[in-house]
Amino acid sequence: MEYNGVTIDDEYAEAFPTWVSRIIITAVTEDWAYRAANEATGFATSAIGCPCEAGIEGFLSGDETPDGRPGVAILICAGKKKLKEQVVERLAECVLTAPTTAVFDGLPEAEERIAVKLHFFGDGYEYQKEVGGRKCWAIPIMNGEYVGEEDFGIVKGVAGGNFFVMGENQMAALMGAQAAVDAIAGVGGVITSFPGGIVGSGSKVGSKKYKFMPASTNEKYCPTLREKVEDTKVPEGVKAIYEIVIDGLDEDCVKEAMAEGVRAACMVPGVVFISAGNFGGNLGPFKFNLRDLF
Amino acid sequence: MEYNGVTIDDEYAEAFPTWVSRIIITAVTEDWAYRAANEATGFATSAIGCPCEAGIEGFLSGDETPDGRPGVAILICAGKKKLKEQVVERLAECVLTAPTTAVFDGLPEAEERIAVKLHFFGDGYEYQKEVGGRKCWAIPIMNGEYVGEEDFGIVKGVAGGNFFVMGENQMAALMGAQAAVDAIAGVGGVITSFPGGIVGSGSKVGSKKYKFMPASTNEKYCPTLREKVEDTKVPEGVKAIYEIVIDGLDEDCVKEAMAEGVRAACMVPGVVFISAGNFGGNLGPFKFNLRDLF
Amino acid sequence: MEYNGVTIDDEYAEAFPTWVSRIIITAVTEDWAYRAANEATGFATSAIGCPCEAGIEGFLSGDETPDGRPGVAILICAGKKKLKEQVVERLAECVLTAPTTAVFDGLPEAEERIAVKLHFFGDGYEYQKEVGGRKCWAIPIMNGEYVGEEDFGIVKGVAGGNFFVMGENQMAALMGAQAAVDAIAGVGGVITSFPGGIVGSGSKVGSKKYKFMPASTNEKYCPTLREKVEDTKVPEGVKAIYEIVIDGLDEDCVKEAMAEGVRAACMVPGVVFISAGNFGGNLGPFKFNLRDLF
Amino acid sequence: MEYNGVTIDDEYAEAFPTWVSRIIITAVTEDWAYRAANEATGFATSAIGCPCEAGIEGFLSGDETPDGRPGVAILICAGKKKLKEQVVERLAECVLTAPTTAVFDGLPEAEERIAVKLHFFGDGYEYQKEVGGRKCWAIPIMNGEYVGEEDFGIVKGVAGGNFFVMGENQMAALMGAQAAVDAIAGVGGVITSFPGGIVGSGSKVGSKKYKFMPASTNEKYCPTLREKVEDTKVPEGVKAIYEIVIDGLDEDCVKEAMAEGVRAACMVPGVVFISAGNFGGNLGPFKFNLRDLF
C-alpha cells in the first residue's frame, strides 16, 4: 500500500495500558503556562529510565479553563502508584513554584481519583476557595496566591502507540518526523513524550550481549547495520529511521494521532517508507494496524 | 542603598556546595540541540523534590564544540552519588534518544570524573571512535549513529545563590524577574533551574504546622500575609516577590550572575526593592552580599 | 460596568472599511510556513506609514490546506489598488523566496478577485498543475518547485477595531495586553497587526503643532500628561495604556475578538480600566460598544 | 577542494555596495526588543521588490546598550535616499509603536549621518533628554514615554555576499542551510535578510522570455531543469539548492559569515556541494572566493 508515493508497511503498532492523569495548568499568559508545563513534563520520555512519561497535550483558551485564564493541558503516564507520586512531585516542584500558575483537574468525570495535597505547603495559612465551580486550595506564596485543585481523575489509557518514519537520508526522515509531530499536536488526548516528540534510537527489550540492560538498540532497524544483521528490517535505500511514540487517553485518540502523523510524514520529500513497532503481539493488548489508518 | 531608584537591601544570599557536571550536547542544528537539552533539564528545579537541579548554561557555536556542530551546554547539580545516577539517566533517556545528538564532557580539566557508560545500549555493535580529539563511543541507532564521550568531569560548585525581586504589583515583579533571567542567560557557568528561571513560591526549611513537610511557604515574604505575620519582611507597598535561584560552577560566576540579574531587574518600572535569602548564615558556607555586587 | 473588578468604560471603537485578502501559506513543516508568513506580514502595522496592514490569522493543519501540508493563514489589508500591489510584492519577495512554500487563496468564495501572476518568474519553464482541486502554477526554482495559486479573493472587511488596556503601572498594562493578544489569536478571521499585537503609542489624526504630521501622540490618553492636558481621558491611578487594534474579515469576527481580548485582559492583576478609541463617530461606519461585548 | 567530504566549488560570490544603518532597539525584556525588531525588519528580503533589505544582527545585553536594558541590533540596507526613508518609516511604525521600546544609533562613529525626526510625533509635548551619554528625545505616549536618538550613522557596506548549499535531496539542503544560518547568527556585523535567512528561489537578472521582469528563476541552478537546460550548473546527484545571502557592514564580516556558514552547512549529512553566485565579475566590486574561506 502507498500513500503519496510512500510505502505503508503491513505492520501494526503494539501498545500497552498505562494510567494517565490530565492536568490543566493556567497562568497569566499562555507563555507562562507553557513554561510551567514544559518544566513539569521534562525528564519524562520513557518509562524505561524516566520516572514517568509526560508531555503537553494542547493549549486551552480562557474560555476552556476553570479560572478563565490561558492554559496548557499536560498528560502524565505511569503505573498507578508511581503516577500519584509523580503528579505530586511535578506539580509541587515545577508548577507550584512557577510564576502565576494555577492547577485544575483535566479529567473531572473519571471515577478513579488521586489526591495531591499541595496545600500542606501553606503551613496553616492556606484556605479553601471555589474557582469556576471547582473546590480549590489557595496557598499564600511569595508572588501572591497559588490556587489549585487537589483531587485528580486518572484513567486507564494507552502507551506506546507508534510508527516509524524512514527516509532516503537522515534529514528527510527527521523532517518527516517533525511534520508528523506538528500534525499530532493538533489531535486531542495524546502526547509524544520524547525530545521534540521524536525518537532517534528506538530500542528492543533486553540485550543479547549485556544481560543487565533492560533495553538496547534495535539492530534490525539500524541502517548502518543493514549489511551486518541477518534479519534486518531496513528497506533498501533507507538511511535513517525515526520513531514517533504516542501515549493517549484511549485507543481512539492514539489511532487518530497515528493517522494524522503518518499522513503528514508522507508529505515530506525523501520519506520513503512507514512501518510500526511491535513485539510479536503477545505483550501489548492494543494493536494499531497501519493500513487501518487510511 | 539604591540602584536606578530601587532599594537594595542590606542582605546576603546564603548558598551551598553541590557537585556539578557540565555536558555539551550537539546536534545537526541549534534547535535540535536545544530540544534535547530542554528535555534533559526538565523536572529539575529544586533538590528538595526533584532528583537534581539542572538547566541550560548557554549556546555554543560549531567553533566551540568538539564535533564542529552547534551545541548547548547544560549543568546538572546534585550530591555526588545522585549526580552520577542523574547524568546517566538523563543522557540515556533524553539525549541518546533525541534526533542527531552527540554528547561531550564540558569539564575536561576537572580531576574528579564520573563514568557514563551508554555504549552498552549498542549491544555489542558499538565501537570506539575519536571525535575532535575526544575518545568517544559510536552506537548504531535507528537514525544512524549516536556518538558520545563517557567520561565526565565534575566539580564542587555552588547551589542556591539567590535574590528577591519585589514589585509594587505582581506583573512588575514578574517582568523584573524576567529581565533578570535574560541578563543571567548571558553569564557563563551558571543556570537558573526553576520554570522560566523564576520562583514564585520561595520556601523556608520545614514547617511549623505540618512536621512531615521538608519545606513550606516562607510566610515572612508573603505579601498577602503582611498584616497577619508578626515579623514580616515584605516592605510597605510590595505586592509580589519573585526569587531568582542560581547554581554555578564557582563563587565568581554566581556572584557575576547575581550582579547582572539584580541590575537588570532594577531597570524594570514597578520593581521597588531587591533583597536576598539566607538562613542566618550558619547553614551555607557561601555568602553573597547584595551591596558587594555594585 | 465592571468585569472581574475592572471598569469597562461606556465607549465604543470606531472602525473603517478595508479590502482584505486571506492567503494560505503551506510548507514542509509548520515552522517553515510560519517563517514565510512572519516575513510577509512584517513592516505592516498601520496604513498610516506602512504600505499595508498584515498579520497572521492562524495556523492550519494538513487536513485544512489544499496540499495536505501544515499552513499559516495571513490577512493583508489595504485599499483595493494598494492591496493588489502588496499581495504581489509580499508573495513574490517573502513567500516565493522562502524554503518549501506553496500559496493558496484563503477566500475561494469571494466574488472580487485579484490576479497575482508570480508565474512570470518561471521565465517560460513554469507550467500549470492542479493541487487539491486548485488551479496552480508550478515554477522550477533552486530548491525544487514552487507551487501556487494566482487568483485570490478579496472582501470588504473591517480595520481599526480596538480597545485600550489601562493598568496601575506599565507592566500590568503590558501583560494585560499580552493576555488579550493570546486570546485573540484563537479567534478566526482577525489579525492584530502591531508588534506583538500591541500598540504602545496610540495616535490622534493630525497634529496641533506640526501641520505636516498625518498623526501624532494622543495626548488625552498619555499618563505622563494627565496633569498637563485639560481634557485628559486617563483615569485616576492609571499609569500606562496599551491599545489593541484588530482588523478582520467582517464585523462579527472583530466583535468576537474584542470580546475575547477584553475579557482576557481583565483577568490580569493590575489592569484597572478598559476603554476604546473613536473619532466622535463621524468617520468610521462601524461602531463596537464595549458594553455590548458582554 | 573538499571540506568534511563536501565539494567546495572554485567559485566566488560577487557582491555590491550598499548603505547600511545599524539601529539598537531596547525594551523591558529581550523578548519585547525582539518583537519590535522582527516587525521592523519584515518585508525586507531583497532590494529587487522590497523597499530595503533588513534583518537582525544580534542580541545585546544591558551592559552593551545605552539605557542598560536588553537590546537587539538590526541592520537596514538600501540606497542612500531610500535608506533614510525606510529608517524613518520602520522606526516610526514598527518601533515607536511597540511596547516599552527605545532606539539608539548603532554606528556612533560613522561620519555620514541621517536625521530621523520622530519627535514631531510628540506634538509639542516632547522634550530633550540625555540617556547613557546620548542626546535623545522623550515623547509622551500612551504606555508612558518613548525615548530615542534621532541622528544615525550610516556606512557603505556590502550587499549580496552569498553561497549555495546543495543537497542530495531537499531536506538535506534545507537543514544544511539552517545550520549555516545558525552559525552566521553568531557573527557580528551581518544579516541574512531572507525568510529564516534562506533563499529557496535564487534569481538571475532579467528574464529571457518576459522582458518586463527585473529578475527571474535562475534556470541553470534549478535541479528539475537539469536535463532540460544546456549549461546547467547543477552537479550530478544534487536535488535541491538553497542560497544564503549576506549583507554586512564591511567585507571582513561578510567574509567571516560566509566562512562560518559554509563550514556549518558542510557538517550536515546529505549536503554534497557548496558553490556561490556571481554575474561574471563585472557588476559587483566585491569578490569572495569560496576557497579563500578555509
TrEMBL record, chains A, B, C, D:
<comment type="subunit">
    <text>Homotetramer.</text>
</comment>
<keyword id="KW-0554">One-carbon metabolism</keyword>
<dbReference type="InterPro" id="IPR014053">
    <property type="entry name" value="ForMFR_H4MPT_ForTrfase"/>
</dbReference>
<keyword id="KW-0012">Acyltransferase</keyword>
<dbReference type="InterPro" id="IPR022667">
    <property type="entry name" value="ForMFR_H4MPT_ForTrfase_N"/>
</dbReference>
<comment type="function">
    <text>Catalyzes the reversible transfer of a formyl group from formylmethanofuran (formyl-MFR) to tetrahydromethanopterin (H(4)MPT) to produce 5-formyl tetrahydromethanopterin (5-formyl-H(4)MPT) and methanofuran (MFR).</text>
</comment>
<protein>
    <recommendedName>
        <fullName>Formylmethanofuran--tetrahydromethanopterin formyltransferase</fullName>
        <ecNumber>2.3.1.101</ecNumber>
    </recommendedName>
</protein>
<dbReference type="GO" id="GO:0019386">
    <property type="term" value="P:methanogenesis, from carbon dioxide"/>
</dbReference>
<keyword id="KW-0808">Transferase</keyword>
<dbReference type="Pfam" id="PF01913">
    <property type="entry name" value="FTR"/>
</dbReference>
<comment type="similarity">
    <text>Belongs to the FTR family.</text>
</comment>
<keyword id="KW-0484">Methanogenesis</keyword>
<dbReference type="GO" id="GO:0030270">
    <property type="term" value="F:formylmethanofuran-tetrahydromethanopterin N-formyltransferase activity"/>
</dbReference>
<dbReference type="Pfam" id="PF02741">
    <property type="entry name" value="FTR_C"/>
</dbReference>
<dbReference type="GO" id="GO:0005737">
    <property type="term" value="C:cytoplasm"/>
</dbReference>
<dbReference type="InterPro" id="IPR023447">
    <property type="entry name" value="ForMFR_H4MPT_ForTrfase_fd-like"/>
</dbReference>
<comment type="pathway">
    <text>One-carbon metabolism; methanogenesis from CO(2); 5,10-methenyl-5,6,7,8-tetrahydromethanopterin from CO(2): step 2/3.</text>
</comment>
<feature type="domain" description="Formylmethanofuran: tetrahydromethanopterin formyltransferase Ftr N-terminal">
    <location>
        <begin position="1"/>
        <end position="141"/>
    </location>
</feature>
<dbReference type="GO" id="GO:0006730">
    <property type="term" value="P:one-carbon metabolic process"/>
</dbReference>
<dbReference type="InterPro" id="IPR002770">
    <property type="entry name" value="ForMFR_H4MPT_ForTrfase_C"/>
</dbReference>
<feature type="domain" description="Formylmethanofuran: tetrahydromethanopterin formyltransferase Ftr C-terminal">
    <location>
        <begin position="144"/>
        <end position="293"/>
    </location>
</feature>
<keyword id="KW-0963">Cytoplasm</keyword>
